[in-house]
User: Which sequence fits this backbone?
């Protein structure tokens, strides 16, 4: 049986990169629009404890994402013909199929069942796609 090669350093780099991406995406880029679509009062700032708790959970979630995604990427290498694909094509293949199969349906469900706006959908699903792309690049190239 072949062994999967999982690079723990790449996983940790992907965790850090996606933590920074999340901060940039939901603060200077789309923070105000996201807060408005979520119905948050932007004049009320979360306490330090709330921020710390949120960051801890975000790091844990990013670790789970990167760890499982690394295994997913490694599993693709066992598919016949995948070794002939360029790294760029492999990165895009992994990103697009993971986003289409696991993130997009959930994001659409939030619009449908939770009555959230399409603008919020665009912000969140855009983040999910870019987050996967960043992780795929790091996990594939390292």
Assistant:
């Amino acid at each position: 049986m072949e062994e999967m090669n999982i690079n723990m350093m790449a996983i940790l780099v992907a965790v850090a990169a996606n933590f920074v991406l999340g901060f940039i995406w939901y603060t200077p880029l789309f923070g105000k629009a996201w807060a408005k679509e979520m119905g948050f009062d932007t004049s009320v700032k979360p306490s330090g404890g709330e921020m710390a708790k949120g960051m801890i959970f975000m790091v844990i979630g990013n670790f789970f994402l990167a760890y499982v995604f690394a295994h997913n990427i490694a599993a693709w290498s066992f598919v016949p013909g995948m070794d002939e694909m360029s790294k760029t094509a492999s990165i895009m293949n992994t990103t697009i199929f993971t986003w289409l199969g696991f993130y997009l349906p959930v994001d659409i469900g939030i619009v449908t069942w939770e009555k959230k706006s399409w603008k919020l959908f665009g912000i969140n699903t855009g983040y999910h796609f870019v987050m996967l792309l960043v992780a795929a690049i790091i996990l594939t190239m390292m």
Observations:
- The chain has one domain: 8-141.
